[in-house]
């Protein structure tokens, strides 16, 4: 029993020593691990990059366009007074002056003398008929239709005369009331009329006019 107890006692001691050694080893490993973990420094990584400055847009102040120039137009609706007022005779301005000898005298302004234009070299003349005008339009020229209808009247006319004395145009200025009588008047005067042309103040021939009238009367049988 004593050997068995001694053997068990030795086994227990050996087991206790082993356990103790294991615990010491675990404790030391724990201490070493903690020390190691405390010595590890974290690595800090710094990243740099360029930052562009934001573009600044210049502020442009709007320019106001120039204001248009306003013009005002005044219209006078009041009619012009064209009446002529008699202001009496014209009075020339006068003033007094000292002639240097102590005598005061009155000075009167003399109006300028307007030169009289020279008389014309020739007296202007109007166009004049040549020969007997009564033969230019006669009883035999009475339009047949107007004669049968009994149309009568007076046709006033104006003839245009050129520098050679020829009739170039005929205008009815007052109708007889019958187109046939008016047309016959101009037709016969244009073809038969002969004139001395008009002249101006230099004696030169110029175009002119001649005015008269033809009376249409049905002759008594």
Count of alpha and pi helical runs: 3
Provide the low-confidence segments as ranges.
Answer: 1-7, 34-40
N-end to C-end Cα span: 213 Å
SS strand fraction: 15-25%
CATH class placement of one domain: Alpha Beta
Mean pLDDT: 74
Rounded Rg: 70 Å
Question: How does the overall form come out from the CA principal axes?
Answer: elongated
Structural class: alpha+beta
Record field, number of beta strands: 9
| Main beta-sheet strand count, sense and barrel state | 3 strands, antiparallel
The amount of helix comes to: 25-40%
Largest sheet, spatial ordering of strands: 5-4-9
**CATH architecture descriptor of one domain:** 2-Layer Sandwich
The CATH topology of one domain, please? TolA/TonB C-terminal domain
Order of helices and strands: HEEEHEEHEEEE
Protein model, in words:
- By secondary structure, this protein is of the alpha+beta class.
- The protein has a domain at 128-216: 2-Layer Sandwich (TolA/TonB C-terminal domain).
- Helix content is 26%, strand content 20%.
- It has helices spanning 2-39, 144-149, 179-192; strands spanning 94-98, 104-108, 128-129, 153-161, 167-174, 195-196, 198-199, 205-206, 208-216.
- Strands 5-4-9 form a three-stranded antiparallel beta sheet, covered by helices on one side. Strands 1-2 form a two-stranded antiparallel sheet. Strands 3-6 form a two-stranded antiparallel sheet.
- Residues 1-7 and 34-40 have low confidence and may be disordered.
């Amino acid at each position: 029993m004593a050997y068995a107890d001694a053997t068990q006692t030795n086994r227990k001691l050996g087991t206790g020593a082993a356990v103790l050694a294991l615990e010491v080893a675990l404790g030391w490993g724990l201490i070493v691990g903690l020390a190691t973990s405390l010595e590890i420094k974290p690595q800090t990584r710094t990243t740099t990059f360029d930052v562009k400055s934001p573009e600044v847009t210049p502020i442009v102040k709007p320019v106001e366009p120039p204001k248009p120039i306003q013009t005002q137009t005044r219209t006078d609706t009041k009619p012009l007074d064209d009446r002529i007022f008699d202001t009496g005779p014209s009075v020339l301005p006068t003033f007094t002056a000292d002639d240097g000898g102590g005598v005061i005298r009155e000075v009167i302004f003399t109006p300028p003398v307007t030169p009289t234009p020279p008389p014309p070299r020739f007296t202007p003349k109007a166009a004049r008929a040549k020969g007997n005008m009564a033969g230019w339009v006669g009883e035999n020229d009475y339009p047949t239709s107007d004669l049968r209808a009994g149309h009568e009247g007076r046709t006033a006319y104006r003839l245009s005369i050129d520098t050679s004395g020829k009739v170039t145009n005929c205008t009815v200025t007052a109708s007889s009331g019958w187109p046939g009588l008016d047309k016959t008047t101009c037709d016969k005067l244009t073809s038969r009329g002969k004139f001395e042309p008009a002249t101006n103040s230099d004696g030169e021939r110029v175009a002119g006019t001649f005015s008269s009238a033809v009376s249409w009367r049905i002759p008594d049988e």
